[in-house]
Amino acid sequence: MLNKVAGKILIKETELNLKMMLAGGQSFRWTELVPNSWSGVICNLLWILKQSPDSLEYEAIGLDGSDDVERTIRKYLRLDEDIKSLYAHWSKRDSHFEKVSSKFPGIRLLCQDPVENLFSFICSSNNNITRISSMVEKLCSLYGNEICIYEGKTYYGFPQVKSLTQPGVEELRKAGFGYRAKYIYESAKQLDALGGERFLEDLKAKSYTESKLELLKFTGIGPKVADCICLMSLGHLGTIPVDTHVFQIAREHYMPSLKLTKNVNDKIYKMVGDLFKEIYGESAGWAHLVLFCSDLRENRVKEGTKRKKEMPQNKNKNRKKAK
């Protein structure tokens, strides 16, 4: 019988946008079971989260008896942060944020495990959310420990650093990881030599600049991935990872001088990051995440609309050919 604990936290859905947080490119371990119900792994436990308009219900499965369950989920979702005050502060500083935030309330920055965060974002190189999620799941099933079987599916914890240093990890290339397989293996060896998880935990006490410089020494970690790790798992909340979405947001709404610029070089990367830091201050990374999620959502809607428009046209073409 599975050892589990259930609980309920009173919080309005306007203060917790679970869908955008769990499926918006922060973490890659969550699956929507049915609308407003999610399964995922945090701290080597399987979590089932169910959201209603006024509360969040949770089940933590796979306990060893020493887990402070509610504290774990509150920390992960940053539920003790006053998100209304943060949104109000950012809205005063930026009219575009004010407009966007009314459509996307309750987006919180997840507080993630540094080891999982580091290797997940190594997988993110030139990739999309669906493929990254599949790769991270594969990594866990191959090298992580089994937590439990729930409703026919086996759930695994994220691998220990030491387990990723095995030479066989390079075989991930055959499992669809491509060049990222070598990055995972080499970075795992580097991290293990530095002390593993403890090394990353110690970076939380260092400055953003020091932390980023240390991360850039790892194989497969460039400026954007380093910034994602700094923001999402090391507590450097002013960090701005600049990807295509963030660059497009900056170009369209804040930096018209970049209208004709198509690529992000080091200079532009810094310009965009500095701009958002100037606007939003010490929690700029969280604020920019709201803009990122809104842009991601709008792009998905546009793609869905485009596909719907194309489908009847293709059917008509097929009918004409049949005649």
UniProtKB/TrEMBL annotation:
Location in the cell: Nucleus
A GO molecular-function annotation: 8-oxo-7,8-dihydroguanine DNA N-glycosylase activity
Gene3D superfamilies to which the protein is assigned, alphabetical: 3.30.310.40, Helix-hairpin-Helix base-excision DNA repair enzymes (C-terminal), Hypothetical protein, domain 2
Residue span of region Disordered: 302-323
InterPro entries: DNA_glycosylase (IPR011257), HhH-GPD_domain (IPR003265), HhH_base_excis_C (IPR023170), OGG_N (IPR012904), Oxidative_DNA_repair_enzyme (IPR052054)
Reactions performed catalytically: 2'-deoxyribonucleotide-(2'-deoxyribose 5'-phosphate)-2'-deoxyribonucleotide-DNA = a 3'-end 2'-deoxyribonucleotide-(2,3-dehydro-2,3-deoxyribose 5'-phosphate)-DNA + a 5'-end 5'-phospho-2'-deoxyribonucleoside-DNA + H(+)
Keywords associated with the record: DNA damage, DNA repair, Glycosidase, Hydrolase, Lyase, Multifunctional enzyme, Nucleus
GO (cellular component) term, any one: nucleus
EC number(s) from the headed UniProt entry: 4.2.99.18
Root EC class: lyase
Swiss-Prot/TrEMBL GO biological process terms: base-excision repair, AP site formation; nucleotide-excision repair
Residue ranges of every copy of the HhH-GPD domain listed in the record: 123-296
SMART domains: ENDO3c
Main localization (coarse): nucleus
Function: DNA repair enzyme that incises DNA at 8-oxoG residues. Excises 7,8-dihydro-8-oxoguanine and 2,6-diamino-4-hydroxy-5-N-methylformamidopyrimidine (FAPY) from damaged DNA. Has a beta-lyase activity that nicks DNA 3' to the lesion.
PANTHER family xref list: 8-OXOGUANINE DNA GLYCOSYLASE, N-GLYCOSYLASE_DNA LYASE
Family listed: Belongs to the type-1 OGG1 family.
Protein name: N-glycosylase/DNA lyase
Origin species: Cimex lectularius
